[in-house]
Design goal:
alpha/beta, Rossmann fold, Luciferase, domain 3, GMP Synthetase, Chain A, domain 3, five-stranded mixed beta sheet, five-stranded antiparallel beta sheet, 18 helices, 28 strands, globular, disordered C terminus
């Protein structure tokens, strides 16, 4: 049964919070201040005042361009939050994006968004305005306004001049651009109705109490950080405590200290965040931590590993962490955010299955005489209908069979911005038996006893000799095989030899130490080939050992395997050592002399 909506729009939720508890902190942002964290607080009344000021500025500065979206370019601070809500208050479509404060891929991505969305205005801080205005002019975007907001802005608008806009449920509230590795950006159109439905689904699934305190380090322009950790607390009149991703990566214990200091009840992270805490938080740093306030700790946005969950719970159980607080979940921007999650009062589910059967798209009980795989349940769907469908025949599959995950419900977005054909193909899918109106996720998974198990991505599947292999399984096996291999620092993909039309498996793996003896590198490369031959029956893989930091990830922590394939073929990886099969070596465009292919002895 769909939940009754508490509010129609996010603006309604914030304004209600202002009426009921104007002085309650809506946000607390923790700035890096040397080794310490310095808090900056924003009450509901001040948040509302600043949002009305931004809205008034927008309404007066862009009278003729109200249909064009507004691009937000801010560091991850409270200024972003007020600008984002200011767009809602103005009835404008917002686009959260990373500040292009460095050349390269981030700048290219933001430029792609600018063009794709036909942006009418850019909001930023005063100190970035001149540089961004110059960038817009150089890009030929002279008709795009560049406005500065924040306390230091020279031009500020009177918040009392704000007039509430007429907003329809079907109006696009914001565009969520994919953080994936494709060069062509796609903007997911999230309507006000979608946002309200998913916020209510999250509230019901997490049993979020009124006045909840949530805390996170996730990027504010990413769906999990924005919708789950920033807007959900506002939906229930609570408080969101935040820090930057960089602050967390530098010192992972800061996330746990935040939970302790502010009695955080709900948090979220991709799998690698929990793994980072398990490995890098010292006994001294965790000695006085009390994590007993934590009711919900979501784990999503990349494959959830059972080993990581067990290790995290085991490491911090002595600090009051309850096992049932760890909640694997599944979601994506095209469903606004949440699709499924586990029960709030029960430990997560794990399912150990026969590896050979999984390669044939079936979940069967593990056998003692064969290899197995452990899958983590991502809970039951929440206010969204889920089907498992054969991606080729479009036949709906029964329980226990792996296929493409299809979704239908109020949270499913209205499509991709200015992409009618792609929207029709992806958001209007029809099953073989005529069931219509489903969104095709491109993700693979299975339902078993109503629990959803997500197994991988269709486009990243390795099809070898009639077997379906998952890249994350190979990556994990390599990283667990020796201390030299960096956890979370691997990417497995295939490259195709056009002459034979054969797909060759390539393993790119970071090493922990930047300097390793040449003889050790040769031995490590050979050990990876031997391991994969033995464990996955793949005798002819190519191995590339690279420096730490070479593996690219999205803002949500997903390995960008498509991008890594491109960098490999372009010869752009910081290679320490490689053992390439001859057909693979022939595909690589080396910046200098082509690498000498290694001959694998079998």
């Amino acid at each position: 049964m769909p939940h009754q909506l508490q509010y129609r729009t996010m603006t309604d939720a914030v304004r209600t919070g202002v009426e009921r508890h104007p002085e309650r902190p809506a946000f607390v942002y923790l700035h890096e201040d040397g080794p310490d964290m310095r808090p900056e607080q924003l009450s509901y009344a001040e948040l509302d005042r600043r949002a009305r000021s931004v809205a008034t500025r927008l309404q007066h500065a862009s009278q003729q361009d109200r249909s064009r979206p507004v691009l937000l370019l801010y560091p991850p601070t409270l200024d972003f939050v007020t600008a984002f809500l200011g767009c809602f208050y103005a009835g404008r479509t917002a686009i959260p994006a990373p500040l292009p404060d460095e050349p390269g891929e981030r700048l290219a991505r933001v430029h792609g968004i600018l063009r794709d969305a036909d942006v009418g205005a850019v909001l930023t801080l005063p100190k970035y305005r001149q540089a961004i205005a110059a960038w817009l002019a150089a890009a030929g975007e002279q008709d795009v306004l560049c406005l500065a907001t924040g306390a230091d802005a020279e031009e500020t608008a009177d918040p009392d001049l704000w007039t509430p806009p007429r907003v329809r449920d079907t109006d696009v509230a914001f565009l969520q651009y994919s953080s994936g590795s494709t060069s062509e950006p796609k903007g997911v159109m999230v309507t006000h109705a979608n946002l309200a439905a998913n916020e209510e689904a999250i509230r019901g699934a997490m049993v979020t109490p009124d006045g909840v305190v949530a805390g996170s380090w996730l990027p504010l322009y990413h769906d999990m950080g924005l919708i789950g950790m920033t807007l959900q607390p506002l939906w229930v009149g609570g408080t969101s405590v935040q820090m930057s991703p960089i602050a967390f990566i530098k010192q992972p214990h800061r996330w746990l200290r935040m939970i302790h200091d502010y009695r955080v009840e709900g948090t979220a992270s991709p799998n690698f965040g929990y793994e980072l805490c398990t490995r890098r938080v010292t006994e001294e740093q965790s000695a006085d931590l009390d994590l007993s306030s934590l009711r919900v700790a979501l784990n999503g946005a990349e494959p959830v590993r059972a080993e990581t969950l067990r290790a995290f719970v085991g490491r911090f159980a002595g600090n009051g962490l309850r096992p049932q607080a760890i909640r694997p979940c599944y979601g994506l921007a095209e469903n606004t955010l949440l699709v499924s999650s586990g029960d709030t009062e029960a430990p997560h589910l794990e399912l150990t299955v026969d590896a050979r059967a999984l390669e044939q798209d079936e979940l069967r009980p593990a056998r003692s005489d064969r290899a197995d795989r452990t899958l983590v349940g991502c809970g039951r769907p929440k206010d969204t209908e889920v089907l498992i469908v054969d991606p080729v025949t479009l036949r709906v599959l029964p329980d226990g069979q792996v296929g493409e995950i299809w979704l239908r419900g109020r949270s499913v977005a209205s499509g991709y911005w200015n992409r009618k054909e792609l929207t029709a193909e992806t958001f209007r899918a029809v099953t073989a038996d005529g069931r219509a109106g489903y969104f095709r996720t491109g993700d693979l998974g299975a339902l078993l006893d109503e629990e959803l198990y997500v197994t991988g991505r269709i486009k990243e599947m390795l099809i070898q000799h009639g077997r379906n292999l998952y890249p994350q399984d190979i990556e994990q096996a390599v990283q667990e095989s020796g201390e030299a291999f960096r956890r979370g620092g691997g990417a497995v993909f295939t490259v195709t030899d056009e002459a034979s039309e054969r797909a060759h498996v390539v393993v790119v793996q970071e090493l922990r130490a930047p300097a390793v003896e040449a003889a050790d590198l040769v031995q490590l490369g050979a050990s990876v080939q031997s391991l994969i031959s033995r464990q996955f029956q793949l005798p002819a893989v190519s191995v590339v050992l690279v420096r730490p930091g070479a593996i690219r990830r999205t803002t949500s922590g997903k390995t960008q395997r498509t991008l890594m394939r491109r960098l490999f073929l372009d010869g752009s990886l910081p290679v320490l050592h490689q053992r390439l099969q001859p057909p693979v070596a022939a595909l690589v465009t080396a910046p200098g002399e082509a690498p000498e292919p290694a001959v694998t002895r079998r």
